Amino acid sequence: MSARTLLLLAPLAALLACNPYNPDLGQTPFRCGTSDPACPEGYVCVENSPADRVCVSKNSSAAPDGGNGGTDASLIDCTGDNNQEPNETIGDPTVTPIPDFQDSLQLVGMQICPEGDVDVYYFRIDTQGKNVKVEVMYSSGGGTLLVDVLNQDGTSIRTGTSSGNPDLITAEVPNLPIGKYYAQVRGDQGVRNGYDLTISVTGP
Asked: Is residue 73 in a domain?
């Protein structure tokens, strides 16, 4: 089992659902969560705009532009999600706890960085007819991100779209058969950007 898999699963034993954050985000700013607590203990949420909210260490002197995917996305230092890397392909993805421990997962402060980076997340459907929704929240001012749901062969079965909110892209696939699936996040050519990822599985 890889180190990043252990990183995801270990907090579950301590009721991960209560606090989905890595307990030590370091000094680099990360996107705030969408519900309380918006940031882990020891961090404060700094809001530049409704679409630009980052968690910054209370002891940090860093400006809130080092990984939030905003208009200063060129300043991303590509270390914000090192604990998930490498997760470029379906052969070496980040393994999520879906469905063995929970039916949904939110990861904040992820990055498509450097240019050409691809992030792949593995989950399973264990009951015929379940539905999956993959959401990517990011600042479109930093460059366009793309999300796909892939089948076990790595073929896209749904590409995410934006509806009304340019900072949110969603890929939904209903009535899936039992099997292995992946959420894949990538950027347009030359794009480096930060994002938050939510994978939700619902149904029978």
From this structure: no
